[in-house]
Amino acid sequence: MPELPEVETIKRELRPRIRNQRIVDCTILRPDVIAHPRPSSFCREIIGEKIRDVTRKAKYLILELSNGKRIIIHLRLSGTMALAPIDVEPEKFTRLVLRLEDCQLLFKEPRVLGRIYLLKNREKPSNLKGYFSLGCEPISSDFDFTYLRSKIKHRKARIKSLLLDQNICAGVGNIYSDEALYRAGIRPLRRAHRITKQETTRLIESLKDVLHEGIANFGTSVSDYRRTDGKDGNFQNFLYVYGREDEPCRKCGTIIKLQKIGNRSTRYCPKCQK
């Protein structure tokens, strides 16, 4: 699933290309990806509007429109955004085509799990509750010792599970939680209330570092994620544990282990992570 660094990369690549462009036409190829409002009114409400800005909130990509509405795109497991010339026919798995003044913006999703919403300023549809209950992003200045300590010090859940909780660590998923815990030297199975103050500080620093490095390397391409030009990200070349189960740890040589925590695959080094 595209996480914060992948969606931030998409945002940065789209912004200079499509900002202030008018939406000339809209073609919905899979109506079920339009989660709000009804597909029959989605296109009608955006055609003719300009894209004033491209922003992001956690794992959600946002197109700010000239009529005050927002197109919110949740890429989910395998969604990607691509730019194409106007005369290019949509490829397989393209679910939505927005024709702009000098290009096409394509939403592709092989598994049809991604969803798109069109919201008025104060509109809060019931099927988008997660968007309105997001916690702090670790790259935010608000994500500090006081914030994280208050979220974990009384919790008996595994620390890995809490890092995946979007009400706590907005934008973090399986890849960057595994990598941050490795860098902090904390085993993912540890109970959150047993994490010390010193470990909390290390974890905050690790989260911030790994997310910023992921952004600097255009995200992680280990499955479906691609940049807007179809190229891979680069951060998969710098992973220490994610996707490296049964391989030796890059630091100590111990074999990286794979374990399920809350139905999520988790990788860690038994020696480097206490």
TrEMBL record:
Residues the entry annotates as binding DNA: 111, 155
Requisite cofactors: Zn(2+)
A Pfam family: Fapy_DNA_glyco
EC assignment: 3.2.2.23, 4.2.99.18
PROSITE patterns (UniProt xref): FPG_CAT, ZF_FPG_1, ZF_FPG_2
FPG-type domain residues: 240-274
UniProt-annotated catalytic positions: 2-3, 59, 264
Catalysed reactions, as listed in the record: 2'-deoxyribonucleotide-(2'-deoxyribose 5'-phosphate)-2'-deoxyribonucleotide-DNA = a 3'-end 2'-deoxyribonucleotide-(2,3-dehydro-2,3-deoxyribose 5'-phosphate)-DNA + a 5'-end 5'-phospho-2'-deoxyribonucleoside-DNA + H(+); Hydrolysis of DNA containing ring-opened 7-methylguanine residues, releasing 2,6-diamino-4-hydroxy-5-(N-methyl)formamidopyrimidine
Entry note: cofactor: Binds 1 zinc ion per subunit.
CDD domains registered for this protein in UniProt: EcFpg-like_N
MF annotations from Gene Ontology: 8-oxo-7,8-dihydroguanine DNA N-glycosylase activity; class I DNA-(apurinic or apyrimidinic site) endonuclease activity; damaged DNA binding; zinc ion binding
GO biological process: base-excision repair
Keyword tags: DNA damage, DNA repair, DNA-binding, Glycosidase, Hydrolase, Lyase, Metal-binding, Multifunctional enzyme, Zinc, Zinc-finger
Subunit structure: Monomer.
NCBIfam families: fpg (TIGR00577), PRK01103.1 (NF002211)
Family stated for the protein in its record: Belongs to the FPG family.
Protein name: Formamidopyrimidine-DNA glycosylase
Organism encoding this protein: candidate division WOR_3 bacterium SM23_42
